[in-house]
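Sharing a chain and its predicted structure for anyone who wants a worked example. Both blocks are below, sequence first, tokens second.
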Amino acid sequence: MKVTLALLQHACGVDPAANTEKALALAGRAAQQGAQIICTQELFRSQYFCQSEDGDNFKLAEPVPGPTTAAFQKLARKHRIVVIASLFEKRTAGLYHNTAAVIDADGSLLGIYRKMHIPDDPLYYEKFYFTPGDTGFRAWSTRYGRIGVLICWDQWYPEAARLTALQGAEILFYPTAIGWHPREKKRFGTDQHAAWETIQRSHAVANGCYAAVANRIGHERPAGGAGIEFWGQSFVAGTSGQMLAKAGADTEEVVLATIDLEEVDRTRTHWPFLRDRRIDAYGDLTQRFSS
């Protein structure tokens, strides 16, 4: 079964309504170009507000389901597309998550995934905003295949990819907001980007599935200072980690890739990593550190 994927890569301004309209327009354009599964970048409704710890930013959150999921459900029904939409979820007063909504091609909300790994690094102060996810790692059967969703910092963890793949995910989607600290770019930039791309391609290899990563572009300074220069370069990797499609570093675009889901079965059969796992020997993975 062949399926066309689309990743939405764009800059984000200060107006959430305008950002939402842009994402909806790009998703509509992707559907017209034949896309069947469309993934937004992480927290596309706003600039990346986690660059500071500011209580006013909680006003950006919304319930899930809510107005943005409703807008994408309408779009999904109209174009018969599957949508992964990354949102700042207000679960209840004082309880917020970094959440992805998964919408099927009939417009139904199949479910949500709440980001499990929450970073706390310079200009990535996510622990101030997001409660760690409690959905566990999940996969959904959609009209166009079985998919799993992980979010940004999750992408560095092979355990997350493995547990999602073990639920039958044929495609791992990663809504993302990652970039360089401008002062570090010259010294570390090439290695940082290479590591980010390599780890996700390795998840495709290790699990015999596709990996699709949507990242934003632009130089954002919502908290002042040097800000973050997002590196774009959204991509789709094949079941052997090969690059199937890749966006530019600073271009607003829809990244399209047509994949063959039968390759998942072929790859997992001929590279039987799942068969040869030693689950009897992996108990220490549940420990913080094993000396």
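Comments welcome. The mean pLDDT is 97.
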